TrEMBL record:
Annotated substrate binding sites: T49, E120
Any one of the GO BP annotations: lysine biosynthetic process via diaminopimelate
InterPro entries per record: AceGlu_kinase-like_sf, ACT-like_dom_sf, ACT_Aspartokinase, ACT_dom, AKIII_YclM_N, Asp/Glu/Uridylate_kinase, Asp_kin_monofn, Asp_kinase
Protein name from the UniProt record: Aspartokinase
Documented EC number(s): 2.7.2.4
Enzyme class, broadest EC rank: transferase
Lineage of the organism: Bacteria, Bacillati, Bacillota, Bacilli, Lactobacillales
Domain of life per record: Bacteria
Keywords: Amino-acid biosynthesis, ATP-binding, Diaminopimelate biosynthesis, Kinase, Lysine biosynthesis, Nucleotide-binding, Transferase
Organism per entry: Secundilactobacillus mixtipabuli
Function statement: Catalyzes the phosphorylation of the beta-carboxyl group of aspartic acid with ATP to yield 4-phospho-L-aspartate, which is involved in the branched biosynthetic pathway leading to the biosynthesis of amino acids threonine, isoleucine and methionine.
Amino acid sequence: MKVVKFGGSSLANSTQVNKVVNIVKADDQRRFVVVSAPGKRFDGDIKVTDLLIQYAKATLNGDPSDTITGQIIARYEEIATAFQIPQSAFEAIKQTILNLPHHDYQDDSYLMAAFKAHGEKLNAILIAQVLKASGVNAKFLDPKEAGLVVTDSPDDAEIIPTSYDRINEWADSKLVRVIPGFFGYNDQGQICTFSRGGSDITGAIIARGVKAKRYENFTDVDAIYAANPQVVHHPIAIHNMTFREMRELSYAGFSVFHDEALIPAIQGDIQVVVKNTNHPSERGTSITSHKRVNPAYPVSGIASSPNFCGIYIRKYMLDKKRYSQKILKLLAEYDLSYEHMPSGIDDLTVIMRQDQLTPELEDTLIRELVIALRPDEIHISHNYALLMVVGEGMANRTGIMSKATDALARQNVKLIMVNQGASEISMMFGIKQDEAKVAIKALYDTFFPDL
Ligand SMILES: Nc1ncnc2c1ncn2[C@@H]1O[C@H](COP(=O)(O)OP(=O)(O)O)[C@@H](O)[C@H]1O
Ligand SMILES: N[C@@H](CC(=O)OP(=O)(O)O)C(=O)O
């Protein structure tokens, strides 16, 4: 049995939804259908999730929201009309959207979570109706009924492992179950969402719960490519990759599949196949635990992720043990997470995602670090990108680092940080964000020279 997940691009309008219907009908093993909210129909369009965020903010600020609700309702109406869904069913969706502000929420963050989650919830209700109208014996399944219980973190929840047994009770369901992605319920019954792009995570959780043979993740590209196709022209497709490779690459910027979604798949040893809704017969990318190294290409992929900053701290006779403890304690006090902390004899840099910091928080943090550490020098630099070169074939190979640094040097890309060794299948560079595209192209041409 298979779990299929359709991303926002696959459900953006009725034309796309029609392709989804055909894909579900084409294989009776596709028994669990996880859906995102309608995504972008064209470049510059706004995803329903982003409209819902605007709606939530307007509600919190007491601003008018008629225009935004009109836009959201119109997205569902176009699909409902095209598939001749009964007016009463569409009316229920419309009223749910209009009533969102009139519920009790524990605080603003739960309100935001509930507004966001309704993008997928209402879409799942609608797609179940569409499938039914198209002759599929389908039924909506809410994550609460499914048993998908998550941690009490409204916008960055994690699955509670006992959920898997409850989800497993649905494994023999005779109907096709349509489940909204992106959210679950905490043990108080409140909606908490995963991080952005988190419908991939729901798909993987359901796949592990029902012990699916395969988790098919339908999106808008024929495969996962060795570099972001928006940066490199016609990059080579990766048809087979390992969980480890994908996790490193998605963490570092391959937004096509959420890095956290790999964990349930790894735990359940479930094959993940990324496929294109627009070309479902293309083979896509299969992600498994099996290593298949092509010696000609030790590198599988090159990724880059922007919006990091680095806090540089220098102190002569730096006592690393005490220093790191104090830094970690301060970060925890301000609920900040860091990504890397490379250090030298007298200096250390804390690399973190800069969207966690407001200018005020940044000033406070630096002030507190000065008090706690009495450094000889401290400053923060913004707009770094992390650049990652990943491949199972890199393990036990020599010369990859020198090839990479040579290629970057030829393009005058300045290396701010280099990290190799944490994982034998990846190396990471900190570079300036505005040099990321040049850097990716240089590395791609080096590691995929004939393509
Ligand atoms: N290496 C890569 N290979 C394929 N797609 C990539 C890669 N890196 C980034 N992407 C982007 O990921 C997009 C698909 O992910 P996303 O927009 O989240 O889809 P969905 O709406 O289906 O969830 C592609 O359109 C592509 O622009
Ligand atoms: N709709 C949510 C969750 C998601 O996974 O969406 P998509 O499949 O469009 O990436 C978001 O925009 O974050």
